[in-house]
Amino acid sequence: MTARASGSRPSASRRLRYGPHPDQWGDLHLPGAEPRRGVVVVVHGGYWQDPYTAELVAPVAEDLAQHGFAVWNLEYRRAGRTGAGGAGGWPATFEDIGTGIDHLAELADAHALDMDRVAFLGHSAGGHLAVWAAGRHRLPPDAPGAGPRVSPRGVVSLAGVLDLAAADRLRLGEDAVRNLMGAAPGRSFHLADPVRALPIGTVVHAVHSPADDTIPFALSADYVAAARAAGDPAELHVVTGDHFAVADPEHQAYRTCRELLERMLPGRPVTTP
Q1: Is residue 78 part of a domain?
Q2: Per-position b or e across 165-199, b if 16+ CB within 10 A of its CB
Q3: Hey, what's the torsion of the CAs at 120, 19, 50, 193, to 10 degrees?
Q4: Contacts of 171 (CB under 8 A, 6+ apart)
Q5: pTM: predicted TM-score of the whole model, two decimal places
Q6: Could you give the number of structural domains in the chain?
Q7: Cα–Cα distance between 162 and 212 in angstroms, integer?
Q8: Spatial distance between the Cα atoms of 144 and 153, rounded to a whole number of angstroms
Q9: Is residue 137 part of a domain?
Q10: Residue 162's closest CA among 202, 201, 216, 120?
Q11: Domain of 35: which CATH number?
């Protein structure tokens, strides 16, 4: 069970498509709580691999909606395990993240979404994709995901893979990075790596526990150090718990993440004519 905001009502959720592939969809949660806040794009992890879906962060999406946010829980094409199966990987996964986020601009009028008040949140591999997406405006025009239509006020990375090259050297997830990218480090790695895009001019809140034995804490700490050296207003938030605590609405580590979103997207009362 997820914790509900005091006095809140269950959120309404609709599954909406942003492309023809079966994995090109998002669950749009509209808040049942007041005051209404902005929009949070939630990106799931799972080492970018096919068995893992947006259901991993469904409790996060529901909790945020119950606390007044509109939430776009984004699915995307993922790579198969050890390169077998799966429609994603480079560049399809990155194209989907860009297209899926930009689809919010098409949904805004029909669902009263405030596109001036958007934040991204991603867990683990989803943290990599969320921070990468915040830097899409830095990509060359021919790169997957270039030319964003939707830009965030900030990003909350939950134990994110924020240095793709370092994760590749560490062979995290049994070479999950190489499985995603499908090749040795080169131009594609550079375009896909959040730390290589610095500075992005957007605040990144990296929330990570030193006890995380899945994604090393150093990937967040080193990213924040590099971002600040480049002039970005990045912040490192040290929490307790394991790799999944930051995405567990019952854990204090996750509540730190929600509080960061509340700071970025403070409540705005809904006015009626």
Answers
A1: yes
A2: ebbbebebbeebbbbbbeeeeeebbebbbbbbbbb
A3: -50
A4: none
A5: 0.93
A6: 1
A7: 15
A8: 22
A9: yes
A10: 216
A11: 3.40.50.1820
Per-residue pLDDT 10s for the chain (273 aa) are 233 333 344 567 899 999 999 999 999 999 875 557 899 999 999 999 998 999 999 999 999 999 999 999 999 999 987 555 678 999 999 999 999 999 999 999 999 999 999 999 999 999 999 999 999 999 999 999 999 999 999 999 999 999 999 999 999 999 999 999 998 788 999 999 999 999 999 999 999 999 999 999 999 999 999 999 999 999 999 999 999 999 999 999 999 999 999 999 987 655 544
Computed on alpha carbons and rounded to an integer, the radius of gyration of the chain in Å comes to 17
Please report whether residue 190 resides in a domain. Answer: yes
Contact in structure between 18 and 103 (CB atoms under 8 Å):
yes
User: Amino acid identity of 124?
Assistant: S
